[in-house]
Amino acid sequence: MTGPAVRNTANRGRVSRGRRAAVALGLSVALALGAITAPASAIESTVVQTPATSAPDGKTRLGTPAPTKESLRADGPYTVETQSMTGSQTPSGFAEAQFTWPVGVPDGPRPTVVLMPGFVGEPKTLNWLVKRLASHGYAVALIEPPTRIDGPAARAKALRTALPWLISESPLAPRIDQKRVALFGFSMGGGGVIDTASAPTVPVKAVVAAFPWNTRKTFPSLSAPTLVLAGQGDGVAVPEWFAIPIYKGITGTSDKAFAHVSNAHHTLVETPDPRISEMTMAWLGRFLLDDTRYNAFICPGPTTGTDYHAYEANCS
Known about the structure:
It contains eight helices and eleven strands. It is an alpha/beta fold. It has a single domain (44-315), classed as Rossmann fold (3-Layer(aba) Sandwich), CATH 3.40.50.1820. Strand 9, helix 6 and strand 10 (256-261) form a beta-alpha-beta unit. Helix 4 (152-168) packs across helix 5. The longest helix has 17 residues, at 17-33. It starts with 5 loop residues before the first strand and ends with a strand.
């Protein structure tokens, strides 16, 4: 499928080996400074399934095509528009902000996804996913922490500062449905969004933590449905040290899933990947849109093999 037309966006490039090495070095230093638990046992491919049979709001969704594996892995039908603000233009507490939304949809609030990039990551590193989400009808905001070397706690603080401004004063505010907001984060941004959603004053409907890095491993107050993605070949945020214990430490919600992506290095999230797209779009479709047609993609979810090394889900 042809990608969406985009206005006012920077060109996207693949991550260089030098950038990957810089990330690995920086996180290795952080590892040395932080307390790291012993590797958790690997997650096997098991599913606890109690699927819903009707949408929570009781509405029938007419006029929208049923999702397919192919549609979840491709750009949607809408062109998108982007606006950026520099750190000098945003309130104190965070840096750059980028807003992207679909063109040609009815005016009014949209389900919204707020993204946080990874350690030393520029906003453009997640542009492919930003555009994909917006092309499927979501309003999207990408927030930068005060510095690109900030850890998960600082990134969570930046998000907690940015969210009230986003929904009330930002250029994207008229397009944001305050009751339908989700968080997506990569690497230290993944650790940051889990920290953010654990705060009782941050009401979010869904969380996606991609290849998360966080020395904190228990999240009893995280009640939003949460998807944790991990890379089988990730030598930076090693799944046995990070994604797996983080997933097991999420005990405040009955809706959570773990997808272990086969043959995936750490910076895979920063390049267009059909599996990252498929799982993210399915999770948001189910829990941000409350559309039970997405259930089949998360419960029972994908089969293990070429694309997924392991998968586990607990769904209500």
